[in-house]
Design goal:
By secondary structure, the chain is mainly alpha-helical. It has helices at residues 17-23, 54-57, 73-86, 90-100, 102-112, 134-139. It has one domain. The longest helix is centred in the middle third of the chain and has 14 residues, at 73-86.
Amino acid sequence: MKEQLIALCGMNCGVCVSYLAMKNELNKKGFARKYCPGCKPRGKNCTFMADQCDLVGKGLVRFCFECGKFPCRRLKSLDKRYRTKYHMSMIENLEFIKEHGMERFLKEEAAKWRCPECGEQICCHNGLCLNCSLDKLRQNRKYRWEEE
């Protein structure tokens, strides 16, 4: 996990389907996925929050928890969707970083999202390792987390 892949909103771009598709070169393997190197590496402060927040949009804060309105309505809405659909919480990520620091957060994220088969990262959007679980994705290109 890389610090530059943690967006202002708390998204870990290192487990995003668009980042992992790029990292694993899925388009060379017969997929047609949009690639993304992450918000910070492509010069975006946060694609979800920048249009709603001047502090984020202008890059005046490193993380949303530095704002007096944290967590704002927009972040709460985004967080609810991600907790429900994708097994992660931006607000929990930000609170953890604030309390324990980036180094510990990155270490715990690496373990949390590690594929038990190959050691690469599991995608938060579908629960698959885009390195070794491509057969499931080929069978169902809109694959989502299995029912628990």
